[in-house]
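2024-03-11 09:14:02 DEBUG pipeline.ingest accepted 1 chain
2024-03-11 09:14:02 DEBUG pipeline.ingest length=332
2024-03-11 09:14:03 DEBUG pipeline.predict start
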Amino acid sequence: MSKITASITGIGSYVPEYILTNDEIAKMVDTSDEWIMTRIGIKERHILKEEGEGTSFMGEKAVNELLRKTDTKPEEVDLLICATVTPDHLFPATANIIADKVGITGAFHFDINAGCSGFLYALATGARFMESGQYKKIIIVGADKMSSVVDYTDRGVSPIFGDGAGAVMLEPATDGTGVVDMILESDGVGRHSLHQKAGGSVKPPSHESIDAREHFIYQEGQTVFKWAVSKMADVSVEMMEKHNLTNNDIAYLVPHQANMRIITATAKRMGLDPEKVMINIEKYGNTTAATLPLCIADYEHKLKRGDNLILSTFGAGFTWGSILVKWAFDPK
């Protein structure tokens, strides 16, 4: 019997309507469009403004589009995994909420928190479930409402993040398409440089923690940047060398959209021309777990069956990794 792989057979995405521009950011903190574009590469980001709505609202939109595009009934889905660092609630899992909203029954669902590497880790997890032979349709969601944890008085953080969601369908294949290999890494030393200080069991919410603005992202920018530049490039090149791939064998690098300089450095280490790099950071910013599926959704019309993609990411934890995917379908 041929080996079962997890093949991506469809993708859905969603970003909120409201667009927060660099000029608006510049009215909140001491910055400018030129500074943000030069240092980060972001022009605008989408922000979820709907009252009382959170990450599951965007995840629901992305999954419904995915179900429509793949002509899948909700009850046919076996498993849904949601990668997020901004869950609707500490519990239940946002995956539970999304599944209920879209009508997925008879499946199981759970969340993964791996920072900006969340979607990559969730895809790897879903692929292993698929390879077991027990599952026929698995949905992987990457969704984050980062605006809920961004301090818009913090010059170093406020320009970076946006809100959005993406979802892919995994189905079994025996023709060599799908998830070919994965390299996943982490180093807990990163917990000191990128985290949310309050809101968990160590420091539950209090008047003092709110007054101290400790429920927002805390980031040591230079430390995170240095790690990300090194690790994203290292793990992407490692994947190429492991499978004897040259730059000519790679159709696209799908990099986490955190900083244009990190993306450029990774592509340069891989020997890839700019046209072989998926980039949409300028219009979405860093949507954390949603960046990779949003990239694939934007470039879906350019992908051809058999294309080799290397997904690469770096996130809080620190977490990082790469996945080699052989694309399963031609543009529709």
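2024-03-11 09:14:41 DEBUG pipeline.report The two ends are 30 Å apart (CA to CA).
2024-03-11 09:14:41 DEBUG pipeline.predict end
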